[in-house]
Design a protein that fits this description.
Blueprint lengths: L1 E6 L7 H15 L3 E6 L13 H4 L15 H7 L2 E7 L7 H16 L8 E8 L4 H14 L12 E3 L10 H22 L1
Parallel strand pairs: 1-2, 1-3, 3-4, 4-5
Helix pairs in contact: 1-6
Length: about 190
């Protein structure tokens, strides 16, 4: 089994990366393969609603975009998907939503390949906006017919400057519990 962890932060090595990597370490300890995707240096273009994914014979997005190359394959290969985003003006980053919109449209047009995969959101905030962002990411999982595990609290942590999130013990523990629950659920679904 494989878990894809996506960091939607434009800052490499920032708080969102730390939380996604923490979760991936837990699922790796459960014997699962992990794959980390950072959008920090991948300026994924937004969906342009061209409908090309519906018309294409292969499973793809037809938009010319080097930053998006290979991403559909990584989502298809994963049994579980973690998506993390910092809060920007009360919502997920544009990078995160560009990626999810494009993957989501291709999935819906090509057999709903996200259906029944396990999906979980992780959000980091400086101060506020985390609940809306958490809901925003979960809406993607739910409309994609994915299965969403829970944790001991919402999958959020606090931090502004790089590394600050490591001081949020409750946030780190919540993410670790989420990852353990995700691994457990994936194993149960595989039985």
């Amino acid at each position: 089994m494989r878990v894809l962890g996506v960091s939607g932060s434009p800052r490499r090595g920032g708080n969102t990366d730390i939380l996604i990597q923490t979760a991936l370490e837990v699922v790796a300890a459960e014997g699962m393969e992990t794959d980390f995707l950072s959008l920090a240096e991948r300026p994924v273009k937004p969906c342009i609603a061209c409908g090309g994914c519906a018309k294409a014979e292969e499973v793809c997005c037809v938009q010319e975009d080097p930053a998006f190359e290979g991403i559909i394959d990584r989502f298809m290969a994963a049994d579980g998907i973690l998506v993390g985003s910092p809060v920007y003006f009360g919502s997920a980053t544009p990078q995160t939503m560009s990626l999810l919109d494009r993957v989501g449209y291709v999935s819906r047009c090509k057999g709903s390949f996200l259906r029944r995969k396990v999906g979980a959101a992780i959000v980091v905030a400086r101060r506020a906006g985390q609940n809306f962002t958490f809901a925003q990411l979960n809406y993607f999982f739910l409309i994609s017919e994915m299965i969403v595990p829970g944790s001991t609290y919402w999958n959020i942590a606090f931090g502004r400057n790089k590394g600050e999130v490591s001081g949020d013990e409750e946030g780190i523990d919540t993410v670790k519990t989420l990852a353990a629950n995700m691994a457990w659920l994936m194993k149960k679904l595989a039985d």
